[in-house]
Amino acid sequence: MMGFISYLVNGISLGSVYALIALGYTMVYGIAKMLNFAHGDVIMIGGFVTFTAVSGMGLPPILGVLISVAVCTVLGMVIERIAYKPLRGASKLAVLITAIGVSYFLQNIALLIYGSNTKSFTSVVAIEPLSLADGAIILSGETIVTILACIVIMIALTSFIKYSKSGRAMLAVSEDSGAAQLMGVNVNATIALTFAIGSALAAIAGVLLCSSYPALTPYTGAMPGIKAFVAAVFGGIGSIPGAFIGGILLGVIEILGKAYISSQLADAIVFAVLIIVLLVKPTGLLGKQIQEKV
Amino acid sequence: MKMKALSKNTKSNLITYGMVILAYVVMEILTRAGMVSSLLQGLLVPLCTYVILAVSLNLVVGISGELSLGHAGFMCVGAFASAFFSNYTKEAITVSGLRFFLALLIGAAVAALFGFLIGIPVLRLRGDYLAIVTLAFGEIIKNVINVIFLGHDSKGFHISFKDAFSMNMEPDGEVLINGPQGITGTPHDSSFLIGIILILITLFIVINMVNSRTGRAIMAIRDNRIAAESVGIHITKYKLLAFTVSASLAGVAGVLYAHNLSTLAAQPKNFGYNMSIMILVFVVLGGIGNIRGSIIAAVVLTLLPELLRSLNDYRMLMYAIVLIATMIFTSSPGGQAFRERYSLKVLFGQKKQEKEAE
Amino acid sequence: MALLEVKELGISFGGLRAVDDFHMTIEQGELYGLIGPNGAGKTTVFNLLTGVYKPTDGYILLDGENITGKKTIEINQHGIARTFQNIRLFNELTVKDNVKVGLHNHHTYSTLTGILRLPKYYKVEKEMDERAMELLKVFDLDGEADYKASNLPYGKQRKLEIARALATDPKLLLLDEPAAGMNPQETQELMNTIRFVRDEFHMTILLIEHDMKLVSGICEKLTVLNFGQILTEGETSEVLNDPKVITAYLGE
User: What is the ipTM of this complex?
Assistant: First the structure.
C-alpha cells in the first residue's frame, strides 16, 4: 500500500513534467493549428542552458533556471519567426516537416556544442526529502517542487488567459484567427506570445525533468516530448485543462505500469491507453467534438 | 485530347519505371568498374528499402490523404516475421531464392494483417488524432517485439515475455528471437538486384492501383468524403484497402531490410517513430501524391548526409537546415510566389506554353 | 404509386425541432420545388432523404421501398443522388474522373483486376470513359474533361456536380440551390439543362432554390417550408400567389 502511494506520487511528479510540456504543445496547437514537433527539443536546450550556467559557470541554481527560461523564451520566438511564420497558410504537412527539421537542428546544435556523451545534471532543488508515515513514504525534494511548480503554473496560466487582454486574444485567435484579426487582435503577436510562453514552460519542464532524471544528452527531450504530445492529445489537444489532466494521468500510468506490469512495456502501456481513450472519445478527454456541416 | 492525356499519364509512369532500371544499370556498371566505394555499396539495399517505404507511405499520405506516423511499425512486423521464418527454415529450405520468396510472402501477409487490424480502429479517427495513434501503434509494435523471446527445441516452440532462460528449453534448444537482441543469423538473401525488382513490383502495384477504379474511389474520399459517400463510395472499405496495401508493402521493405543484416533488433533508430518520420519527410519533400518524387527524395535524402560526410559533425546540421529551407521555399506562400516569378520556365521564355497547357 | 412518399418526417437536434411532420409525394417524372426562407429546414430535409441525418420520426418510401434510416451509401444505391449547397467536387481529380467516380457502382471490376491490368480492366474503363463523356456532353463539359475539377469556373462546377450525381443512375435527383451564385444568363441555361435532364433521362427532380424565376419557370409543384413545418403545397402558380407564402418571405 505504501509502495503504491509512493509510486503514485512519483507518477504525479513525472506527470507534472509532462503536463508542463503538454501545455506548450496544446497552446501552440490551439492557436497556430500546428504540431510543434520541436517542442521536446526546447526542453533539452533548457536543460543544457541550466547545466552550463550552474555546473559550468558556477552560478546559483535559481539564476541558472531564470537564464534557461529567458533563453528558451527567446529561442521559441526565434524559431517561430524564422521557420514557422513564413509557412503560415501552407499545408499542415509542410509545417509538420519544418518542425521536424527544427527538431533535428536543435538536437544537432546541442550535439556540436556538448557532444554525445551523457552529462550528469546537478539537481537545482535543495530541499530535504520529506518522510511520511514513519519513513514508509519518502518524497524527494524534486518530487515536491515539481508538483508544486506545476500547480502554481497551471493556476497562473489559467488566470492569465482568462483575465488578461493578451490571454483573451489567445482564446480569440484559437477560436477563429480570421475573425480575431478583423476584431483588431494582432494575430502575429499573439502567436509569438504563445510560442514564448510555451517555450518558457518547456525550459522549466526541462530543468525539473533533469533534476529528477539527471542524464542529459541531445536526445533527452525527444521521448518526453512525444509523451507530452500524447498527453496533450489524450486530454484533448487544444484544451489547457486537458493537457494538465492528460499529463498527470500519463505520468501515473507510466510509473504504475513500470512498477506493476513490466518496465520494458511501460511505454507500450502508455500508448495503448491513449489508443483506447481515443477510440472511445475520438477527440480526447476534454476535446471538442467537431461535426462537419453538410 | 483524351488520347493525349492518357498517353501523357502512361508516359510519365514509364519514365518512373525506366528511371529505376537505369539507376540499376548505371550502378551495376560502376560497381563492376570498381568505381563505387564500399560505403555506397553497403547503402544500396537500404536505399531500395527506403524507396519502397516512401512509395508505399505515399499511398496512405498522398493518395488516401491520411497522415500516418507508424509506417516503420509495419516494416518492423514484416522484417521480424520473415527473418524468423528464414532462420527457422534455414536448414529445411536450402534454395535461397525459394526461401526468400516464401519469406517475402510471409512478411507481406503478416504486415498486411497488422495493417488491416490496426486500420479498423485507426481510420475512424481524423487528421492529427490519426497521426498520433499510428505513431502509438508503431511504438507499441517496437516495444512488444523487444520483450518477445522465442525458441525451438525437440519439444517444439517455447515463448516467454521475460527472458531467454524462462522459456525452459532443452539444452539442444535454439533461441530464435532473443528479446532486445532480436534475431541473429538471418541468411543474407537480399541483394541490390532483388531490391530493384521489389521496387518495380511496388511501383507496379501502387501506380496501377492509383490509376484504376479503386484509386479513383480512394482519391475521391480524400478530396471530399461527404460527396464520395453521396455517390455510393464505401468510405471504410477503400480507406482500409489503401492502408492495408501500404502496410503490406512496408512489410516487403522490412523483408528486404532483414535479409540484408545478420542481426535484426528493433531499436528506435530503425523501427521507431524517427524512422516513420524520416519516410514521411521523403514523401513530403518528393511531393505529396507524387510517386516518382518519393523515389527521388528517398535517394537524394539518404545520400545527402553521406555526401556531406566531409563536413563531419556539421552534416546533420546541414541536413536540418536544408530540410527547413526546402519546406519554406517550396511550401510557403512567399516561396511559391518567388518560384513562379523566377522559375526556369519563365527564364527560358516558356511561359506561353504553360498557359496553353492550362 | 408515387416515386417518393414521405410521411410525418421529423428530426430533433437536442431540444430543437428542426423539421416537423414533413410529408411529400412526388410522382415519377415530376419537377418538384422545395422552397422557403433561410433556415426553414430545406437542406435538413435533403439530409434526411439522403441519410446524412437519421430521422427521429416518420418514414421515407422510394419506389415503394422503405429507405428510412438507411445509410447514405445504401440510399444512393436505392436511387437517390444529390448535389450540395456548397459545391463538393473531388477537386484534385479531373472533370472526367469526377463523373467516373459517380459510375463506380455501375461499372465494376476488382482491385486486383485493376492492379494486374486484366482485359476486363480495359473493357470496363473504356465503357466508363464513353459513358462519362456522354454525360459531360449533356452539360457541355466535354471540352474540359481533362481539366482539374477545381480549375472549372463556378457555374461549370455546379453542372459537373449534377453530371456526377446523374452518373450514379438515380431514380430521384436532389438539387440543393443549383442556381446559387449564377448570373441571369447562366440561370437561364441551367433551367434549360434541368428540363433537358428530366426529359432525356426521364428523371424525377426535387430542387431547393431561392431564385423565384427558376422556381416558377420549371417547377410543376412546390412545397413551402417555414420554421421546419410545411406552410403550404401544391401547383406552382397557386402556391406562389398564396398570401401566406408572400408573408413568410417578406414579413408582415
Answer: 0.92
